[in-house]
Amino acid sequence: AQDLKNLAETINFIDPNIDHAKKAASILKGLDVITGDCTNADIFQEIRVKNADFFISVVEDDDDNIMSCLLAKAEGARKVIAVRNDQRYVDLFLSLGVDHIINPQNISIQKIIEDIKAVPIENHLKLKNGGIEVMRFRAGRNSRIIKKPLRDLQGLFKRSIIVGIILRDNDIFIPGGDTLINEDDEVFVLYNSENTKFVHKLFESSML
């Protein structure tokens, strides 16, 4: 974090461990150190992540890194970078809106800094190719897609709609054909821009 100081006027360092956060505060001069959990969306309002040019998640849990990046992106962070040891599903996570996924075994802090400097800023909810958007929804009680296996919903999803990630009770998982979406699940959906109204109606709930 200290090495990134030259890239921005303000850097927030967030750590879920209070003892580690106190130690970090004594070492990382000039940075704002906050104790909190980045899979909790409330923390993003506290640090005003909607104004952030970059959000980098480097906790030990791979899935927490992906989840916090998607939450930060949905809240308005322009670019999000996740550290992930498990390189499975990288293309999917990139398509959902994570801008960079870094394997810590193959990269240094200097490379991260170089990547940050090289990345242009663009609309954070539209993918680069062909009018594709990613949105986070909460499945409503009246939604047509809850309590049914995803494979049985292929008829509804024929309009280039993909359920990429589900967040349920702070657990994150990639759905399969047998997966059922429950009421109040937070669902990350990938779809063509022309299907926006249809997707909102399908979930019978407002965008998060």
How is this structure best summarized?
With 208 residues, the protein is an alpha/beta fold. It has 6 helices and 9 strands. Helices cover 26% and strands 22% of the residues.
Structure explained in plain terms:
- This protein folds into two domains: 2-118, NAD(P)-binding Rossmann-like Domain (Rossmann fold), CATH 3.40.50.720; 132-203, 2-Layer Sandwich (Alpha-Beta Plaits).
- Helices cover 26% and strands 22% of the residues.
- The chain has helices at residues 18-27, 41-46, 62-75, 90-96, 109-118, 196-203; strands at residues 12-15, 32-35, 54-57, 79-83, 100-102, 132-138, 161-168, 171-173, 186-192.
- Pfam families: TrkA_C, TrkA_N.
- Residues 1-102 form the RCK N-terminal domain.
List the helices and strands and how they pair.
Elements: E1 12-15, H1 18-27, E2 32-35, H2 41-46, E3 54-57, H3 62-75, E4 79-83, H4 90-96, E5 100-102, H5 109-118, E6 132-138, E7 161-168, E8 171-173, E9 186-192, H6 196-203
Parallel strand pairs: 1-2, 3-4, 4-5
Antiparallel strand pairs: 6-9, 7-8, 7-9
